């Protein structure tokens, strides 16, 4: 894959007016410019004119390892700002240059609707907001710009981001033991779904959460529980 250009971006700032003075003078940003959402959108427009696909793959919860009852207001709001509002901001500034029939995607997680102990700090709330926003954005972007908006809910995956919660290996083992498809999810499977949603093959799909999790979201209970030991549970012969 050839990457034509990389644009530095700090998605918590919509424009320069949002940036506090101490951030502007921070050495982290020394020598860099045009890294707010509005500026990056303008740079992309100047360089390419228009685009077909916008992918939001960004999340951050500074207190993700804290239970919700122990999460601070600042930690909670930071999680929502980085993980959900950033998508609204990106689409707001980029949708004018997305070609009609184009597609916008984000990544969510089942913690938006089910309890995942250990996934704290407001991140479950941020993912729930992201999914709700996906539906509203699909309506608004669809009506105004003929742009589709969907989100992918991927199962546990060995990614760098997933390692931040500290128990990704256990989640993968749980998924293999309990999902209808008893196998480890691969990044390619998530990528293939994204490619489909971004293509004309999905031209009538918008406002949707697409689960790419080997079917784990459909399960009501964990079939590896001891209470099912006497039941004849179907199993993959390879596991």
Automatic annotation (TrEMBL):
Entry's Gene Ontology molecular function annotations: enoyl-[acyl-carrier-protein] reductase (NADH) activity
Domain of life: Eukaryota
GO terms for biological process, alphabetical: fatty acid biosynthetic process
Keyword Transferase in annotation: no
Keywords, comma-separated and alphabetical: Fatty acid biosynthesis, Fatty acid metabolism, Lipid biosynthesis, Lipid metabolism, Oxidoreductase
Pathway annotation from the record: Lipid metabolism; fatty acid biosynthesis
InterPro entries named among the record's database cross-references: Enoyl-ACP_Rdtase_NADH, NAD(P)-bd_dom_sf, SDR_fam
Record-stated family: Belongs to the short-chain dehydrogenases/reductases (SDR) family. FabI subfamily.
Entry protein name: Enoyl-ACP reductase
Organism: Cannabis sativa (Hemp)
């Amino acid at each position: 894959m050839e990457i034509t250009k990389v644009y530095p971006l700090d998605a918590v700032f919509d424009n320069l007016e949002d940036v506090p003075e101490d951030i502007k003078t921070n050495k982290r940003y020394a020598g860099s410019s045009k890294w707010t959402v509005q500026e990056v959108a303008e740079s992309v427009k100047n360089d390419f004119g228009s685009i077909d696909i916008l992918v939001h793959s960004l999340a951050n919860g500074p207190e993700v390892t804290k239970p919700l009852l122990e999460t601070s207001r600042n930690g909670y709001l930071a999680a929502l700002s980085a993980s959900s509002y950033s998508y609204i901001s990106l689409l707001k500034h980029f949708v004018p240059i997305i070609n009609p029939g184009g597609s916008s995607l984000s990544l969510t997680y089942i913690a938006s609707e089910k309890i995942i102990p250990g996934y704290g700090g407001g991140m479950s709330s941020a993912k729930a907001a992201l999914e709700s926003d996906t539906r509203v954005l699909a309506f608004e972007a669809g009506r105004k710009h003929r742009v589709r908006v969907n989100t992918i809910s991927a199962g546990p995956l060995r990614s760098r981001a997933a390692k931040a919660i500290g128990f990704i290996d256990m989640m993968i083992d749980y998924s293999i033991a309990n999902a209808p498809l008893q196998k480890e999810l691969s990044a390619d499977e998530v990528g293939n779904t994204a490619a489909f949603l971004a293509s004309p093959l999905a031209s009538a799909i918008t406002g949707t959460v697409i689960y790419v999790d080997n079917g784990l979201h459909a399960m009501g209970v964990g079939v590896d529980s001891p209470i099912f030991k006497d039941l004849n549970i179907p199993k993959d012969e390879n596991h």
